[in-house]
Design goal:
Elements: E1 18-22, E2 28-32, H1 36-63, E3 69-83, E4 89-101, E5 108-119, E6 122-129, E7 132-134, E8 139-151, H2 154-166, E9 168-183, E10 186-201, E11 206-214
Domain Late embryogenesis abundant protein LEA-2 subgroup: 97-187
InterPro entries: LEA_2, NDR1-like
Protein name: Late embryogenesis abundant protein LEA-2 subgroup domain-containing protein
Length: 216
Amino acid sequence: MALHKSTEPPPLSPTHCYTQILSQHGEGCVLPFYGHSTTLFCRRWPMITTVLLLLLSALVYVFWPSDPMVEVVRLRLNKIRIHTLPIINIDLSLYVTLKVRNLDVYSMNFRSLDVAVKYRGKRLGHVRSDHGRVRALGSSYVDAEIDLRGISVMSDVVSLLEDLGRGTVPFDTVTEVSGKLGLLFFGLPLKAKLSCEVLVNTHNQTIVRQTCYPAR
């Protein structure tokens, strides 16, 4: 039985772009080989390599995990109670609404979301939220209520009363998120911490100014 040989040329590689010839002194040197199809391949090879590298860089940029964005969208003073006996102290109740944004192309499941509130550098209290889920490139809102009882340091009481009289109270919030990013059948660990400086208008219960930055 006769075998038919294929008439198609073998695929080209970058090594086909060059050929070796002998010089007059018997030394070998490499010069470009200018066949029609080989020349076309050699001209296109750098462009193909550049396109592949750009495509790989784009895929890494899209699928590389990033920290979620957490923003305080509401910080409302629910209750304020001033006690004069046995010492002057203040009970405060805050209602906090957080917006958690997932910037990745896969879903995010957080096990816990802890929010701590500070006033003029001193921690007043914190609250921990239950687990939740945020879809890919989506956002979710988390509500929490913080009861701060017995603010009794005289300097803090005087400063808080002065701020309440002016109608604006500055708070600092520190939010910690821990969970996993869902990628197919795998779960990538997630942990982020964000600090925000929030100025609250006590007359209309709105946020006047907010500055957030990653915390360590």
